[in-house]
Amino acid sequence: VHELFAGMKVLGCYQFRVTRNSNLFVDEEEITNLRAKIQGELPQRHFGDAVRLEVANSCSEAMTQFLLGQFSLSESDLYRVAGPVNLVRLMQVPDWVLRSDLKFQPFNPGTPKALQKCHSVFDSIRGGDILLHHPYQSFNSVIELLEQSANDPLVVAIKMTVYRTGTDSVLMQSLLRAAQNGKEVTVVVELMARFDEEANIGWATKLEEVGAHVVYGVVGYKTHAKMLMIVRREEGKAGNSILRRYVHLGTGNYHPKTARLYSDFGLLTCNEEIGIDTNEVFKQLTGLGRAQTLTHLWQAPFTLQPNVVTAIRAEAEAARAGKRSRIIAKMNSLLEPETIATLYEASQAGVKIDLIVRGVCGLRAGVKGLSENISVRSIIGRQLEHHRVFYFYAGGEEKVYLSSADWMERNFFRRIELAFPVLDRKLKRRVIAEGLQIYLTDNTLAWELGPDGTYHQRRGSRTSPHSSQAELIELLQA
Predict the structure, then answer these.
(1) Domains of the chain, with CATH numbers?
(2) Exactly one of 224, 248, 255, 386 is catalytic; which is it?
């Protein structure tokens, strides 16, 4: 440091980091061009109000107070850090070190057998629903579906939601090519996807230039649902011409890079009722009219939260009647007050509840008389746990839903979200095994939440360690 400040005596050197409010202040109801307004706001993001100061724990008190004063922050906004203040800056260091024994072993994502049998993705989907489990199974199946759709003369329309997709997305390139090939392309672009606004504006502009229909969702609600629908003209059983809907619904973004890092489920189906439901949601997002009742999909901000609460209460009623009951749910965050209160009620009724919550959890587990039948664990490992899976015993029916939504107020009430059922029995067993049970037996990556609100890492015996992520790699890789 003394070389940077020649001739001066250096008394100390400390790391600090300031976090600023990154929200864009856009009144969607008061503007006529949302895209132009957001473009104007983006340059101001770097000048947002400071909300947090982090300093190395070796930083002197005088310097800490000076920094707090410079950023108009108080002691409650101060965080002292033991170690590097910004760990993200070290992300590239492992690439510089030639020590394979210290790194995760690479693996090749697998491909479902159903997609290996047929040259056409459409033929494969007509043979039955297909479950994709990323990153252990390749995201290329989704890319291939869109690429084939762009070039297939029988495809007449493509509809897709875009939340995060990146600046160099092959999926967006396929949509551009589809529009250029004369397909009716409709894309719901979420311009308010934090830190992806610029990339999404760029894609929206390019799509409009080639004739695609681009819409920006519903005023006041982020479009966070992951939907892709392809309409294809085919020959029916009677030899007549029919339109068949092919649908992809997912728990994660249409982003090839994060699909290699995040754990997510995707469902490929041409189930007629799910296709109708998906089409209804697209109609809501791209036109006018009342929300229609959906057959299979639970949709926020309308039915998702009420249906989750109803399903929890049904398990509680079964437990009170002396019947078998069970709830297992996996998500990123759990904060919504009514859902938490209903889970407490179910626990007191005798329902065994296992929650796998990677991030923030507003529920206190294992408290006698309140939540003694609830366990909460977080899985922290090589992959970022991102899929949302909801399981209810439902009198033996075993209802399983996959979703784009966490159990949070913003997801339930301020976003367009979907939860979709896994109807195929074999795929349902897979989701239960790969998306829930394997995490409940993990004794390597699991951290368990105690009644006092602290997490403790679960340690298994040396003779029988279970790492959910390592076991999924072994099970599903190519």
Answers:
(1) 16-101 (no CATH), 113-296 (3.30.870.10), 299-476 (3.30.870.10)
(2) 224
